[in-house]
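Hey, I'm writing a tutorial for new members on how sequence and structure tokens pair up, and I'd like a real worked example in the thread rather than a made-up one. If someone can provide the structure for the chain below, I'll link this post from the tutorial.
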Amino acid sequence: MLSRNLSLSVQFSGLQTTASKLLGLVPTLLGKTSTSEVVDMYIDDLPTPHLVSAELDRWKHKFANVADKPNSVEQALKACDEMISPTSSFN
């Protein structure tokens, strides 16, 4: 079991671990993972880091009653609205 865990930690370390944590921002996965560690990692790169918490709340609210939520990173990026998420918009 130890060698299996070691193998997984080697295989899924660094960038892959960070990317997997960012999946928590995909609307179908919201609330299932914590994004605070990733936000803290990129805090110096964000134009308005003090707005991240409010933007995450608006992001969750935007999809709260949506039946057909984006379920991939690509769909989530397309759904990201610069008006409600200026810090995290990529459009």
